[in-house]
Amino acid sequence: MLILAVTVQGLSYREVARIHGVSKSLVQGEAAFIPRSSAPRSRPARTPDAVRARILQLRAQLTADGLDAGADTICSLLAAEQVTLSRSTIWRILRAEGTITPQPQKRPRASWQRFCAEQPNELWQSDTTHWRLTDGQEVEIIGWIDDHARFVTHLSCHARITGRTVTDTFQQAAAVHGFPAATLTDNGNIFTTRFAGGILA
């Protein structure tokens, strides 16, 4: 009777269980114990198939004409047709359809440049850190390094580092190793020129 209600009448398992006052798992039988897919039944945010087809058509047409067929160009052409999609969505569709060949050599220019000075005294970097001594006293450490070889031009410990400490340690290091062409620090107050009095400029 339960089977006929599901197969012949087209009722859902839930409806049959409610009508006959039994559990849904009893109506489903062994199928109740088989894991079901957790995939959504629909994807309302998925790009419509017609738009996906238009993206592929534009890609093929632009490529055949020898024009730029990237996601930016396709995005502009779709916008002219009153279709709004993000560049990244278009790129994902092109990649999913296999029309994009990965080109790792096209990584950003900045990733090709090593962050390292080419010559000694081209760039010095400075930073500070806090340290607790074994007796519990808090101290601050300042260091200057030559970026070319990571050579430490100055390292010292102070009860408190001020803008004056920065300029004094810089001048001490420069007196021994020569002045650098440039310096690099974070934007901490002790490194800004209003505290350093313009000495580092």
What is the domain tally? 3
How far the N terminus sits from the C terminus, by CA atoms, comes to: 92 Å
Overall mean confidence score, pLDDT: 82
H and E order = HHHHHHEEEHEH
Tell me, briefly, the overall form: elongated
Strand order, main sheet: write it out: 3-2-1-4
| Residue windows where pLDDT falls under 50 for at least 5 positions | none
Would you tell me the structural class of the helices and strands? Answer: alpha+beta
Q: What gyration radius follows from the Cα positions, in whole Å?
A: 34 Å
Helical percentage: 25-40%
Q: Per DSSP, what share of the residues sits in E-state strands of 2 or more residues? A: 5-15%
Number of strands: 4
Tally of individual helices = 8
Q: Characterize the main sheet.
A: 4 strands, mixed
